[in-house]
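INFO worker-7 received task bundle
INFO bundle size: 2
INFO processing item 0
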Amino acid sequence: MAEENSSLTTALREEAFAFVRSLANELSEGKVELPCFPEVALKVRRALDDESVTVARIATILGAEAGLAARVLVMANSAALGYSGKPVTDLHTAVTRIGLSNVRTAALAFALGQLRRAVQFKHIMQDLERFWRQSTKVAALGRVLALRIPGVNADLAMLAGLLHNIGAVYILARAGAGAGVIRQTELREMLLKDWSATIGRSIAENWGLQEEVVEAIGQQFDVDRARRGSADLSDVQSVAVANADQVGMEQGVDSSADFRIALGSLGLDESSGARIIEESNASLAALQAALSG
């Protein structure tokens, strides 16, 4: 019986690795097949790929989907995300205020929200919710860190953080309810750990995201990568991914020793950990208000 179980485990492992290799091959050929991905998100993506696109055109696309339009408006009026002044009530002004990068972020967040609610993915709903909570933490922490590092774009840090586990989402969404990768928890977690960054990088590249966002997603687990000069977006992403669990902690809880060391590696004051976590908590609440639902 033990030999039979061992053989089954080996068969499942081979099946699972063959599956993710097939996904990687598809993505290398430019094929991104994410079921239930809403058409409006694709329209926004295609529009943003056009360098001559106007704000009016983007606002028109957003206005066709009330849920997405609401997210953009909430983001544009969020003081915690750095937007202040007279309240914005129209999409044209909102798009102008937050910029096209954050329109992309809102559209992708909306799309991921639709995936989480799709009946087709009921069997992985808990995983998708866990991924979403983690991604908002990474996005919040990454944004706060980026604001302190010259040359690192905070909006791109937020986008990279939000999409840091898109590879894991893609793997589980494509696996199907009956796949061995879903049934075996240990095997599933191992595959996600080993392949999510690679798959995520390919997806980000195929979606035409900025090269530094693509690299940040692909290198997010490479905490020891060689760096020349000052910290960049990939460094911020690695630190945010490794320390995101501290975001959302009770007020007044000090940051961990590992986080303080990581801050030093970014060229930041190691004693600022508690303050950064506090700011990330505020940013997390704003992100969840603007992008969830």
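INFO item 0 finished
INFO processing item 1
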Amino acid sequence: MFIERCVTSLAEARIAVAQGASRLELCSALEVDGLTANRKVFLDIKRELDIEVRVMLRNSHPGFEVSAASFVQLADDAEWFKQHHADGFVFGFVRDSQLLEAPSADLLHICAPLPCTFHKAFDTCKSLPDSLERLIDLGFASILTSGGYATALEGASCLTALIQQADGRIEVISAGKVRSNDVYSLANTIKTRIFHYRM
């Protein structure tokens, strides 16, 4: 089982590692579905813990659009985290239920060669199968999704279809109200062993 845990602090990261997390997603402001990670928290985690850390890049809410000014800040953040040994990034731009491909491609280029995850903004897209293909073409390493539903369990059939469609070309990470005590039952339903959940 591969478990990615979403954390916002060193204390949460310690707990996640102690509970067997395979990878961390570091962000801030979970009350608005996550914003760019705190730099000091990132440095503290990297200094103390031996685990892969992917960093959230998002500086506006609500929604998942990006302005020219906010993109400049995201690019600066990406460069800083790269210089300080981030292991990857998590971001995603969507407007009116459509992927914003140009800024996504530009930020992927800045983050390269580190792997990037398209976050759950994916679930707001009009056509998940079509969007999956576009993200593969753009070069994302993975996507976070509950199949367009509120929870991974509700979206199980769609998640299974997306995993089959991806066919190993991109990592489909099941997310959405997943809890540690239901991962194994979900794995039997969704037929995957890659999950993401919060503390």
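INFO item 1 finished
INFO post-check item 1: The radius of gyration is 16 Å.
INFO post-check item 1: The longest helix spans residues 68-83.
INFO worker-7 idle
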